[in-house]
């Protein structure tokens, strides 16, 4: 039994054998093949046109095809459009149901009965998500078309944010305390989707001003743009020369007002500040059944890095913690530590609970007389909501 595909291939193979064996003309094969394919496509098109012309009963046709693009829309905004349906049959077309693949898209049929040769319209309301890019959902049309009871239409939108940010992460690398850092630049660009669109001026809503120096400068529209149009702003980020020592990672929040409410973008800023001392480890995480007042939470090594010179002695350090839940002291090194060059610049910091703690996050400030300081994060997690009293204290 010959298949439909094999019936098409046999004439082509016959021409190939004939051209190669009889005449040896290789150049004839490609033009003849293209000619046959062209006639095949034309024949298929004529057949489809004939089927449309000779359609009996109700017959649903999508004039715009199975893919409908509604256009550009703002993040969290909405867009409306239409999907046309046409009855190319000889009897009335009845639309039984129109459903969507997502609650973000609703469809409303203006007329459920479409006469032969007439066109109907489905109104579509699409609520966009907050993720920029192309988004697609399906629209299923169920009718009394005997050849295809359900037809699926792919509806797409392009979600465009109001503002585009050139980068969302800034890394300062390793910086030295007391020295001026490099200034990082970020471009904030307005992306218009309509002519003369109103622009909401962005502001820097939240950042760590002890660590970062941030400015936002309107750049206007008279300079070259990234996309040829739209207003843009320049955000400059510098590191405070007196920033805390150690690794840091901070959010920088850019905020603006829009018709859909207050919107914001988060820029992550990270890096490391090095000075004359450092702590090992850089944080303490305490996970116990409970923590009583006076319990030792841990010890930290305060090490001299050898930068800037100066003495590395306990009297040069001041320890503080705002909440009053913790207390710390530097344990003076024993005389044997001074006989070893490797350990003579090492101090030990002991952290205790000043009161009963169930849970919490704290920052212990270790400040040197030179002005350098370090924030040691301490996280306390207990598995009991109440603290059991010590024996004899009940």
Write up this protein:
With 394 residues, the chain is mainly beta. The protein has 4 domains: 4-53, no CATH class; 60-160, Immunoglobulin-like (Sandwich); 166-274, Immunoglobulin-like; 277-382, Immunoglobulin-like. Helices cover 12% and strands 48% of the residues. It is built from 3 helices and 25 strands. It has helices at residues 4-23, 29-53, 335-338, and strands spanning 60-61, 67-74, 78-87, 93-100, 105-109, 113-114, 119-127, 133-143, 150-160, 163-165, 169-176, 184-190, 203-206, 212-220, 232-239, 246-258, 261-274, 277-280, 284-288, 296-304, 317-320, 326-331, 346-353, 359-368, 373-382. Strands 2-9-8-4-6 form a 5-stranded mixed beta sheet, with no helix packed on it. It has a 4-stranded antiparallel beta sheet with strand order 1-3-7-5, with no helix packed on it. It has a 4-stranded antiparallel beta sheet with strand order 10-12-15-14, with no helix packed on it. Strand 24 and strand 25 form a beta hairpin. The model is unreliable at 1-30, 43-51, 221-228 and 334-343 (pLDDT under 50).
Question: What would you call the structural class?
Answer: mainly beta
Question: What gross morphology would you assign?
Answer: elongated
Strand content: over 45%
Text of the CATH class of the largest domain: Mainly Beta
What's the total helix number? 3
Distance between the termini: 96 Å
The tally of strands reads 25
Question: How many structural domains does the protein architecture include?
Answer: 4
Strand order of the largest sheet: 2-9-8-4-6
Oligomer: single chain
């Amino acid at each position: 039994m010959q298949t439909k595909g094999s019936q098409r291939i046999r004439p082509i193979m016959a021409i190939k054998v004939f051209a190669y064996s009889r005449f040896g003309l290789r150049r004839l094969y490609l033009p003849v093949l293209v000619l046959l394919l062209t006639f095949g496509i034309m024949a298929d098109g004529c057949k489809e046109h004939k089927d449309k012309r000779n359609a009996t009963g109700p017959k649903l046709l999508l004039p715009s095809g199975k893919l409908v693009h509604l256009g550009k829309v703002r993040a969290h905004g909405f867009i409306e459009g239409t999907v046309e349906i046409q009855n190319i049959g000889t009897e009335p077309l009845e639309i039984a149901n129109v459903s969507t693949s997502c609650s973000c898209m609703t469809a409303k049929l203006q007329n459920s009965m479409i006469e032969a040769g007439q066109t109907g319209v489905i109104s579509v309301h699409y609520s966009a998500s907050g993720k920029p890019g192309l988004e697609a959902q399906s629209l299923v049309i169920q009718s009394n078309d005997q050849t295809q009871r359900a037809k699926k239409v792919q509806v797409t939108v392009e979600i465009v944010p109001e503002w585009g940010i050139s980068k969302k992460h800034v890394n300062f690398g390793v910086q030295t305390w007391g020295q001026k850092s490099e200034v990082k630049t970020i471009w904030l660009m307005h992306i218009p989707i309509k002519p003369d669109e109103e622009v909401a001026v962005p502001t820097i809503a939240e950042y760590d001003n002890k660590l970062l120096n941030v400015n936002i400068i309107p750049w206007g529209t008279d300079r070259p743009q990234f996309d040829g149009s739209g207003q843009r702003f320049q955000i400059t980020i510098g590191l405070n020369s007196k920033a805390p020592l150690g690794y840091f990672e901070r959010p920088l929040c850019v905020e603006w007002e829009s018709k859909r409410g207050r919107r914001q973008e988060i820029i992550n800023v990270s890096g490391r500040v090095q000075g004359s001392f450092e702590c090992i480890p850089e944080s303490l995480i305490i996970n116990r059944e409970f923590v009583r007042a006076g319990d030792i939470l841990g010890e930290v090594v305060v090490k001299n890095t050898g930068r800037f010179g100066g003495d590395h002695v306990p009297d040069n350090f001041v320890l503080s913690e705002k909440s009053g839940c913790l207390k710390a002291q530097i344990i003076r090194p024993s005389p044997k530590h001074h006989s070893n060059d490797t350990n003579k610049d090492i101090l030990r910091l002991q952290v205790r609970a000043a009161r009963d703690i169930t849970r919490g996050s704290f920052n212990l400030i270790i400040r040197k007389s030179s002005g350098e300081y370090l924030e040691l994060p301490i996280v306390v997690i207990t598995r009991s909501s109440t603290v059991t009293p010590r024996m004899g204290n009940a």
